[in-house]
Design goal:
2 copies of one chain form a homodimer. Chain A has about 375 residues and is of the alpha/beta class. The first copy, chain A, is built from 13 helices and 11 strands. Chain A has an 11-stranded mixed sheet, with helices on both faces. In chain A, strand 2, helix 2 and strand 3 form a beta-alpha-beta unit. In chain A, helix 1 packs across helix 12, helix 6 packs across helix 7 and helix 9 runs antiparallel to helix 10. The interface between A and B is large, with 67 and 67 residues.
Amino acid sequence: MRIAIDAMGGDRAPAEIVEGAVAAARDFRVAVSLVGDKDTLSKYLQGIEGGVPDSVTVHHASQVVDMGEAPALAMRKKRDSSVVVATRLHAEGHADAVLSAGNTGAASAAAILALRPIAGVDRPGIATVFPTQKSPLVLMDAGANVDCRPRHLSEFAIMGAAYARAIHGVIPGEKSGVAAGQVPSVGLLSIGEEEGKGNELVKTTYKLLHEGAGSGFYSYFGNVEGRDIAFGTVDVVVCDGFVGNVVLKTAEGFAKMFTSSLKEAFLGDLRSKIGAMLLKPALQKFRSKIDYAEYGGAVLLGVNGVCIICHGSSDRRSIYSAIRIAKQTVESDVTGMIRGAIAQVRAANEASDAALGTGDSSGSGTDSTPSSGA
Amino acid sequence: MRIAIDAMGGDRAPAEIVEGAVAAARDFRVAVSLVGDKDTLSKYLQGIEGGVPDSVTVHHASQVVDMGEAPALAMRKKRDSSVVVATRLHAEGHADAVLSAGNTGAASAAAILALRPIAGVDRPGIATVFPTQKSPLVLMDAGANVDCRPRHLSEFAIMGAAYARAIHGVIPGEKSGVAAGQVPSVGLLSIGEEEGKGNELVKTTYKLLHEGAGSGFYSYFGNVEGRDIAFGTVDVVVCDGFVGNVVLKTAEGFAKMFTSSLKEAFLGDLRSKIGAMLLKPALQKFRSKIDYAEYGGAVLLGVNGVCIICHGSSDRRSIYSAIRIAKQTVESDVTGMIRGAIAQVRAANEASDAALGTGDSSGSGTDSTPSSGA
């Protein structure tokens, strides 16, 4: 298996990207194509202690998309950028997945352009994994589609459920809640548990998800609230990309606040310092759980391929961990599962439409451009 | 000053409500009217250790609105419910504020019906206070209005800014960021800092908030992201009630997860237990900060009065703390400040409309019923 990596994307590129990729290539037995300026990358590779495995190669790209750049414009003007070239390597079959810690909008746009949406998917979306009190939870969409219609959320439910099956063990020390043969549970993010609570989008989506559960790809829990994310009430939470992105970043912010307040408390006086020293081993598990938001990768679901999107601030540890997720996503054939599920649901809908003599009144057909990159 | 309290509302009513109210009456020198079933409440009061101050009285109400009850229906059918009677006491001038830990939708509806919206306010909304790395932050709307228009968010900015001035010292051990004479900063919750990032509502609101800052009631920071809430980047964050409620409950869920994971780590083995014991004093401050979400009260801003809405799970400590917030909100005349600010902004808008020869094209005028209670 080979992973194409946008080695120039992210706040700490290329140094941390290269370090993380080389470590992952060693430990996970994956081949890695580092995409970016050949001279720069070769220089970084030469500096790596313990040498670089043969499975790590460099693929030249002359341009870089900046973090603040408008994705649509970047796609037109920077066809030889590291993110576009890395995605193309995957699309042309030279790699099994692509990974970027650069501009999220650009990485999504490149994937949608080069890999194309899966037939029947209107809106590819970003799925992200949260640590919870129980097992990891998939939230979708985490920011690819800021204004959604009910049918988009219904696609997210099917795609998120497929991904939930694939993330077994992605959080160190934790098992996934969805074992082989189990059906993932899906919750609709709202502001009250009862049907009828929520905004217009949620109210209309409620019924659609209920019907969608008839496909057998997920069981429908109904509405969930914000606190159910940390509690791990369900395996998958669906929401529009605006709400999902706000939730992701809110949780990230509070995780940072908690750990920094804790650190402060630990360094207060001698007594506290000794206490903290004694607690160190016990706190390791706690920390690795809380830290997850920072070192996990998100995945763009709904395209013909595997596209992993990392946080802009990713360090070597994040990249290392994200490559592991990329490998698991390829191996568990999430893309194939989504393709099959979407085709089956589509066929069932068409059959029922034909039986009722009605057509698809929701209009537009395929509309695959994310309305904004977060 | 007298506070009318819905003594029958909340998961732990009336016992915890009565206990918290009596303690607050003792410590804060406020008079308290406990509203609910006279016999039940008298029995609880008799059981209180150390006796009950004369400033605590009981006001009979024969009905109770249940937590799951539809607010609109409850307003029609339960005119003698504790929440309606308590609100009426305030509206008729027998109390300076009203407080409920019961059904949020019912408490909001009762306040809007009995107190009426302030002239010029289309949508009263719920403001809630978050602990941050810096000073406490006001988020509005936390759930009263699930589907909002830009002008509603622009009202939230003015109202939230007025409240930010009033909450000095509400989080134990913390100063508020907005001292007398300072202008609160307002951020618009979105998924990217740049203007143009966000959903349709946010994009249109951006300009409106910028113009609104001309009033001098707040300074406009621009877009903020979810993580800026915990970081305390601004004094006030505005968003629609759906997003605000999801954010509030997400933060609440993660706070619970963090503290329970921490507790688990502390009770691991003997070594950890000793460490935890040594750290206990240092962790007190950390805990009181994290716990805040549970014991703080939210306030419904934009009505002619002070209406404090507490979490359904409120215990005596939460009620005690919420009564302190009620007192501060009355003393700092938040309602008067909002009334003045809204009138001034309205007059300025009318003057500029007259000068331009245009009318208000946003339509509808006053529409004060919250679209759903969270």
